[in-house]
Amino acid sequence: MKLPIPNRAVHDIYELTPDFLRSRNITLLLMDLDNTLAPYSTDEATPALKAWIASMKAAGIEPFLFSNNKGDRPSIFARQLNVDYVKLAHKPKQAALRQVLTQKSTPIERVCIIGDQIYTDVLCGSIAGAYTVVVRPISLKNPLHALRYAAETPFRLLYKVKQT
Length: 164
Prior knowledge:
Layout: E1 8-10, H1 18-23, E2 28-31, H2 47-58, E3 62-66, H3 73-81, E4 84-86, H4 95-104, E5 111-115, H5 118-128, E6 131-135, H6 143-163
Parallel strand pairs: 1-6, 2-3, 2-5, 3-4, 5-6
């Protein structure tokens, strides 16, 4: 059984640099959308997000939206960021992930999954053998999101223990 312990924990996506990913031979960056790249309350990509995506592309790393969202947000953001996407990925299930890997002809060892949720994003990547990065959720104003974050705390702390 794979435990959902991230390989790396960062405050936000901007701490994850192209140089860091390239040093780990990452060529495909699967990104969660909601509360990872943008808060639930907006459908507009910020200039900082667009610049971060551009820096990944310039480094030869393909950013790819990999979202459980069932609405229009993934397509809206994918269009703004000029990236491919999957919505309704059903993370942590592996079917959509396997389809993306086949479509992109990318071995799992060259994939990084970044997201704000341990039980979806990190677990999905851990099961598959991808490099996983967890970010602090952008907003915890919703009580259910705050409760979920609290339930994930032991796995976030295990990352810190794993690093020492």
